[in-house]
From TrEMBL:
The modification N6-(pyridoxal phosphate)lysine is found at K190. GO terms for molecular function: pyridoxal phosphate binding; transaminase activity. The keyword ATP-binding does not apply. Keywords: Pyridoxal phosphate. The active site is at K190. InterPro entries: DegT/StrS_aminotransferase, PyrdxlP-dep_Trfase, PyrdxlP-dep_Trfase_major, PyrdxlP-dep_Trfase_small. This is dTDP-4-amino-4,6-dideoxygalactose transaminase. GO terms for biological process: polysaccharide biosynthetic process. The keyword Cytoplasm does not apply. Coiled coil: none annotated. It comes from the Bacteria. Belongs to the DegT/DnrJ/EryC1 family. It comes from Algoriphagus yeomjeoni.
Length: 379
């Protein structure tokens, strides 16, 4: 096979084989089995104050979370614009409308000042937002203190899309545990994978009980099929849970590796003009799922796109950052508050390879490509 450095590839060196074999031999490969229970209890134990339900995707966890918050037709939900479409799509599934808000320059996540302006503006138009969706992109905690203060001031619940931020912390507390409900994703390229899947977490036991009911078609606990409300087929299956549990056992070592990779990039690129990273504040601890950089073309002489092409020619995969949702054709009628921060992030940003097993030699190779680009400009 040709030389290739992937952006982010799962490492499956733990109990993945053992557990999936056990799941297969037990015959329980569907939405019932010991690995589902074990995965949920290990996750809840890790979170201490919170309970969890594991589901078949992060997107279904977001959807259920919004159902639990009572979002319905005609409601407005504030959402960070600079994110993956799955943060906002469930708002539309429920007949509600997203209201997009710009990012701030440190964490690249939702800007607290613009968030407050947005709330005031929507209230003045006659509709108080029903919820605020915040995201911790690439694992970096958003400005949580400021956001929570605003959410409390206006009494609006927060749904935390921590799909990319399992294991990240803010003031020593796990990302995902700050909102009324929190969501993780275990899809193929996240920091830990279950093949596909997600989790919904909350410190409200009743909410999690209700999520468990709704995720199994709202089937009541009776000897016959009996339904009091409309549910969803959203539970995780036992085979995915077997992989997820094995991955969760290794999460801390994954984070250690990803953080080391990030540190190395920062060190190796420190003296490069025009290359910037997300800012991790003293309160924050990012899992550094992906290391992302901003390329200031004025200073480097090359664009993120040129760099992406040069990396690709050497077999190195990189990826653009999220295209802001307010610039997506599908959301072109959606209100947007803010300036051009998120667009600037998209126009200049690039995610660099960040797999757990990325070697120092490979990182040096990647940095060498950046160096060559630079010397092309300034020779
Ligand atoms: C991955 C991701 C999701 C969706 O998770 P899936 O498991 O792929 O459905 C939601 N939000 C963000 C920010 C993500 O990165």
């Amino acid at each position: 096979m040709a030389f290739h450095i992937p952006l982010s590839f799962p490492v499956l060196n733990g109990n993945e084989n053992l557990y999936t074999q056990q799941a297969l031999s037990s015959g329980h490969i569907a939405t019932f089995g010991q690995f589902i229970t074990r995965f949920e209890s290990k996750l809840s134990k890790r979170l201490k104050t919170h309970e969890s339900v594991v589901l078949n995707s992060g997107t279904s966890a977001l959807h259920l979370g919004m159902v639990l918050l009572g979002i319905g037709p005609g409601d407005e939900v504030i959402c960070q614009s600079f994110t993956f479409c799955a943060s906002a799509n469930p708002v539309v599934y429920l007949g509600a409308s997203p209201i997009f808000v710009d990012s701030e320059k440190d964490t690249w996540n939702i800007c607290p000042e613009i968030l407050e302006d947005t709330i005031l503006s929507r209230i003045s138009k006659g509709k108080k937002p029903k919820a605020i969706v915040i995201v911790h992109l690439f694992g970096m905690p958003a400005k949580i203190s400021e956001i929570l203060e605003i959410a409390q001031k206006y009494d609006i619940p927060v749904l935390e899309d921590a799909a990319e931020a399992i294991g990240s912390k803010f003031q020593g507390k796990a990302c995902g545990t700050f909102g009324q409900v929190g969501v993780y994703s275990f899809n193929g390229n996240k920091i830990m994978s279950a093949g596909g899947g997600g989790a919904l977490i909350s410190n409200d036991t009743n909410l999690i009980q209700r999520a468990k009911l709704l995720s199994t078609q709202a089937r009541e606990d009776l000897p016959f099929y009996h339904h009091l409300e409309i549910g969803y087929n959203y539970k995780m299956n036992n085979l995915s849970a077997a992989v997820g549990l094995a991955q969760l056992e290794q999460l801390d070592s994954f984070i250690k590796s990803r953080r080391l990779i990030n540190q190395r990039y920062r060190k190796m690129l420190k003296n490069f003009p025009g290359i910037e990273f997300q800012t991790e504040s003293d309160d924050s601890y990012s899992n550094y799922w992906l290391t992302a950089i901003l390329v200031d073309k004025e200073k480097t002489g090359f664009s993120n796109e040129q760099l992406k092409d040069s990396l690709m020619k050497k077999g190195i995969e990189s990826r653009f950052l999220w295209k802001p949702l307010h610039t997506q054709p599908v959301f072109n009628m959606t209100p947007y508050y803010g300036g051009s921060m998120s667009e600037k992030l998209f126009e200049n940003g690039l995610c660099l390879p960040s797999s757990v097993d990325l070697t120092l030699q490979h990182q040096e190779l990647i940095v060498e490509v950046i160096h060559t680009e630079l010397s092309k400009t300034f020779k």
